[in-house]
Automatic annotation (TrEMBL):
Residues 89-217 form the DUF4232 domain. Residues 37-84 are annotated as: Disordered. InterPro entries: DUF4232 (IPR025326). Residues 37-80 have a biased composition (Low complexity). It comes from Frondihabitans australicus. It comes from the Bacteria. This is Uncharacterized protein DUF4232.
């Protein structure tokens, strides 16, 4: 019957089927390998370094971190000035007082006494500054004393515990222009000094409206009254 139809049928053998299977398997393996190498390429790795927060950084010596701690400068202190032997008498080395006053024809006179209470001798030369003060607070009353430039003004050395003198004259006043005021005493600036002494004279009155004081230069002895 096969021959009648003119057709030839070729049947596969087991060996043929095995070879075909191997060929297909090899082809599939190659295809899979190609897909894997194409779709799974690994990207190069990148290392990222994270900087620490500013608060945890350690400053390099000589570099600023933006903050600093200031070291307070030592407070300057002014040492107490002590009297030097033979130098000009400091106000702090002197105490002041008045001799008994004398008066005649409306004029009063007395001596200002400056005593050296330091342990060394010191000197004074020239005229002291003198003015009345009152109101219980050192307020000046009237003009300062006029300096008698005609008086001798040699340098006077005051030994430790010794004194020097300045003659003071208080002239009479015109009641209409005097403006009489209760005084507490005198403010006295020793020659060459910017600090003053206070000499009490609580029973005195002063003219606030005119000048009534005249003072001589420092002398080694009190002037006769």
């Amino acid at each position: 019957m096969a021959q009648t139809l003119g057709m030839s049928i070729h049947r596969s053998t087991p060996t043929t089927r095995f070879l075909a299977t191997v060929i297909v398997a090899v082809a599939l393996a190659g295809a899979l390998a190609g897909c894997t190498s194409t779709s799974h390429t690994t990207a190069p790795s990148t290392t990222v370094t994270v900087a620490p927060p500013l608060s945890s950084r350690t400053a390099t010596p000589g570099a600023s971190t933006g903050t600093s701690t200031a070291t307070p400068a030592p407070q300057a202190t002014t040492p107490a000035v002590s009297q030097r032997a033979g130098a000009e008498c400091l106000t702090s080395s002197l105490t002041g007082s008045l001799t008994a006053e004398d008066g005649a024809a409306g004029t009063e006179t007395e001596n200002i006494v400056l005593t050296n209470h330091s342990a060394v001798p010191c000197t004074l030369q020239g005229w002291p500054g003198v003015s009345w003060v009152g109101d219980g607070n050192g307020t000046q009353i009237g003009p300062s004393a006029v300096l008698n430039r005609s008086s001798a003004h040699a340098t006077v050395t005051i030994q430790a515990g010794g004194s020097a003198y300045a003659f003071l004259k208080i002239t009479g006043y015109n009641a209409d222009t005097c403006q009489l005021t209760k005084a507490d005493g005198f403010r006295v600036y020793p020659p060459g000094q910017s600090a003053s002494l206070f000499i009490a004279a609580p029973t005195d009155t002063a003219c606030s409206g005119l000048s009534e004081l005249t003072v001589d230069a420092i002398s080694a002895k009190p002037a006769a009254l």
